[in-house]
């Protein structure tokens, strides 16, 4: 298979072997849109794939440089990760947009929220174990995901949860791997929020606060626990609070999921006890992902 070089790293080059099925994207992020496509392999077999295309290029040189750094960061981290609970990176294609596109398998079941809506009887413990093992693997490679949340957990055709979207990930102690204000409010550890968030929407926060310097394996552990609550309940954390800003303000004040608001089976109650350890305010007091996997496996 041909390869393409991006900033002195080589990736499988799928140019000419991937095509879009439609020009309507099915997902999007801050700098990207994701389209459904088809990949033709060496034997001529066709496979559905997701095509992640970076947008916003050629608007401003500084913006373009930022976007390309993020693309390179994502490809650099993602292509090294091989694990059953990490979405595979297939390669790149250069003929589908204004920059190289990142290609991965298409998960017809969608993200974890959609999957649970469609399959309410799914084994939720298994799904939480899947996510835990994926994060444990990242941490064993000294990779911090940095944006663990429901939309970044996909479910494969055989019902296995996999981590995706490594655009905010970084390798510990690797120069050049920085990230802007990362994550989504409901899943973010308190140390990544305060004091960046103003008390009211009209106030100005601390513009010099850089959450990336506080990203750690422990902040991933916190975010994992919020995903665990989402899998258990089928709802995003804090479903009764509509305002994202209100959530951001209250998490540093001690806002956490309240057990009395959920109806839990005996097994789910034991899962809750494991997750509860993960959202304590002090990062050093949170367990490691390896110990979490061990506890979940024992259930």
From TrEMBL:
InterPro entries: Kinase-like_dom_sf (IPR011009), Prot_kinase_dom (IPR000719), Ser-Thr/Tyr_kinase_cat_dom (IPR001245), Ser/Thr_kinase_AS (IPR008271), Ser/Thr_Kinases-Pseudokinases (IPR051681)
GO molecular function: ATP binding; protein serine/threonine kinase activity
Annotated ranges, domain Protein kinase: 20-299
PROSITE patterns: PROTEIN_KINASE_DOM, PROTEIN_KINASE_ST
Protein name, as recorded: Protein kinase domain-containing protein
Species of the source: Amanita thiersii Skay4041
């Amino acid at each position: 298979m041909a390869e393409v070089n991006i900033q002195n790293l080589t990736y499988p080059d799928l140019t000419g072997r991937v095509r879009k099925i439609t020009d309507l994207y099915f997902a999007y992020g801050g700098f990207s849109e994701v389209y459904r496509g088809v990949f033709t392999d060496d034997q001529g077999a066709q496979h559905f794939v997701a095509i992640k295309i970076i947008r916003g290029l050629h608007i401003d040189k500084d913006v373009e440089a930022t976007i390309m750094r993020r693309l390179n960061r994502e490809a650099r981290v993602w292509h090294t990760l091989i694990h059953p609970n990490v979405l595979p990176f297939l390669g790149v294609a250069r003929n589908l947009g204004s920059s190289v596109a990142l290609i991965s398998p298409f998960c017809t079941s969608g993200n974890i929220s959609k999957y649970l809506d469609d399959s309410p009887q799914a084994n939720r413990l298994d799904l939480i174990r899947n996510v835990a093992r994926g994060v444990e693997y990242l941490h064993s490679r000294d990779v911090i995901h940095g944006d663990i949340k429901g939309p970044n957990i996909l479910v494969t055709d055989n019902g296995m949860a996999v981590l995706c979207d490594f655009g905010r990930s970084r390798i510990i102690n690797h120069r050049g791997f920085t990230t802007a204000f990362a994550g989504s409010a409901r899943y973010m550890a308190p140390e990544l929020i305060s004091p960046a968030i103003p008390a009211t929407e009209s106030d100005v926060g601390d513009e010099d606060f850089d959450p990336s310097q506080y990203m750690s394996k422990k902040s991933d552990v916190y975010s994992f626990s919020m995903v665990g609550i989402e899998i258990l309940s089928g709802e995003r954390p804090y479903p009764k609070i509509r305002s994202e800003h209100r959530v951001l303000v209250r998490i540093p004040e001690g806002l956490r999921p309240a057990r009395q608001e959920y109806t839990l089976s005996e097994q789910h109650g034991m899962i809750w006890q494991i997750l509860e350890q993960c959202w304590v305010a002090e990062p050093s007091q949170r367990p490691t992902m390896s110990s979490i996997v061990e506890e979940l496996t024992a259930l």
